[in-house]
Amino acid sequence: MKINDKFDPGHYLASDTRYDKMQYRRCGKSGLLLPLLSVGLWHNFGHTDNLENGRNILRTSFDHGITHFDLANNYGPPYGAAEENFGRLFQQDWKPYRDELILSTKAGWDMWPGPYGTLGSRKYLIASIDQSLRRMGVDYVDIFYHHRPDPDTPLEETMAALDQIVRQGKALYVGISQYQPAEADRAVEILRSLGTPLLIHQPRYSMFDRWVEGGLLDVLEKQGVGAIAFSPLEQGILTDKYLKGVPENSRMVKDGRYLTKDKLTPELLEKVQHLNEIAKQRGQSLAQMAVAWLLKDPRITTVLVGASSPKQMLENIGCLDNLEFSPTELNEIAKWI
């Protein structure tokens, strides 16, 4: 028996004020608007997680105007679990609101055994979108991403698969993730020649991981492609969580795949401490300031945030109360990133 088999569906009626405060940005040169914050289901939606908690995170998000829910085929654990669990929630909560939602999923990382369950072949991508739609219980997703570059498959094959997925009605738009500037530029041109414009790029981007400033954002601006930043809090480093040690309930303790104790060097913690003081002076938490700092650039369409509880999601949303930075604040921040 799966841990979520006893889930009680209940009933959900979305807030009438859900669109009153959220701000939206146009995604590149498309007709699509995305909320400044999007919610990711990377963590906290697996079969070992509390589905009622996950459900309340999504309800809180939507009740505050977050219309974009971001998944991938291998989110879990195990692989596929987040899509399966979202599918259950979709049937109970979200089906009446389908036309108000932007649902995205991805393929590119390891998903099933053998040579056809990873990377960027047409074989893998077409099979993966079909599986994702079955798990989620939807007829289409709004955005389907190639999750990472494939060094061996011709880019023309990968982009042609994305084009085919749109033409088959399985996705409305397509995106890419973690592509370097030159390959992103080429992907845009290939898709444009096929008649399926590239909507969005999903890069890792935070105060401590700024590789996108080395040309990628310029390419996206030139090509009219949107950007959605993931890992804005650097797996929790850009919060006040680790300033007094490592909490027992932290992700570092529970799941050390992406953040290990050896990364918390004295030099890094000194930077975090100084940034935390700047955030306090702004009347924000460090996490709120870190997200707001990304949104200061209009080329960032939306920032992808996760949450372990509805309360944490509300804190994320609170960053929208102060998105402006003075030159003095930006100069002070620049000293520590």
**Which regions have little confidence, pLDDT < 50, spanning 5+ residues?**
none
CATH architecture: Alpha-Beta Barrel
Mean pLDDT: 94
What is the general shape? globular
Fraction of residues in β-strands: 5-15%
Helices and strands: which structural class?
alpha/beta
* Spatial gap, N to C terminus: 47 Å
Strand order of the largest sheet: 3-4-5-6-7-8-9-10
Rounded to an integer, what's the Rg over CA atoms?
Answer: 19 Å
Q: Quaternary status of these chains?
A: single chain
In sequence order, what are the helices and strands, one letter per element? EEEHEHEHEHEHEHEHHHEHH
Helical stretch tally? 11
Beta-strand segment tally: 10
Helical fraction equals: 25-40%
- The CATH first-level class comes to Alpha Beta
| CATH-assigned fold name | TIM Barrel
Describe this structure in words.
With 337 residues, the protein is α/β, with parallel strands linked by helices. The chain has a single domain, classed as TIM Barrel, CATH 3.20.20.100. The protein has 11 helices and 10 strands. Strand 5, helix 3 and strand 6 form a beta-alpha-beta unit. The longest helix is centred in the last third of the chain and has 16 residues. It starts with 23 loop residues before the first strand and ends with a helix. 43% of the residues are buried.
Short account of what is shown:
It contains eleven helices and ten strands.
Features:
eight-stranded parallel beta barrel; 13% strand; TIM Barrel; two-stranded antiparallel ribbon; alpha/beta; 337 residues; globular
